[in-house]
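Marked as duplicate of an earlier ticket. Keeping the data here for the record.
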Amino acid sequence: MKKGLFALFMLLALPLFAADFQAGKDYQIIKGASGTERPELLEFFSFLCPHCYALEGTLDGVRSKLPANIAFEKVHIEALGGSTGKLMARAWAIMETLGVEAKVSPKIFDSVHRFKVRYRDLRDVRAAFVAAGVSGSDFDNAARSFQVESRLNQMRQRVEALQPTAVPDLIVNGKYRINRAAVPQPAQLQALIEYLATKK
């Protein structure tokens, strides 16, 4: 009963959140950004970032409630963590190429932050994929493929265009950078994303 009342309260509260959102307080408008043609939520992240790890569950829950027309993209930045950052960005590109993000990503995050695993090279990444149930031959074929190199270049271009200064960094429609501190509750974050997704 209590859960039902709470859910009803949050549902009724969403329009109030939207009415209160302000540029400069809840989100920043990225200067010079051209925006996207369709509604989009973009997350800059890193497997090496503890705040990204902490946000995973919250963001998954929020995403599951967003309208279906809001596309979602995750971009792994290479700049954090030196050579390991570049290695982890490649690991993400391989996951996307193979379509195994849901299977492998949580295990990579857990290995880094719970079990303090240090990834030194692609052999370590391959072992993590195989442990998560991915075929070793599929990994080998994808690891240095054109698709992975192309995806890495795409991610670098998005980093260059939007200049994330910290991770996780959430951007809506390619021009609105969310201030996470202003929307600490999942329902607030959801409402802000939906609000910004309607803006051009």
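See parent ticket for discussion. Confidence is low (pLDDT under 50) at residues 5-12.
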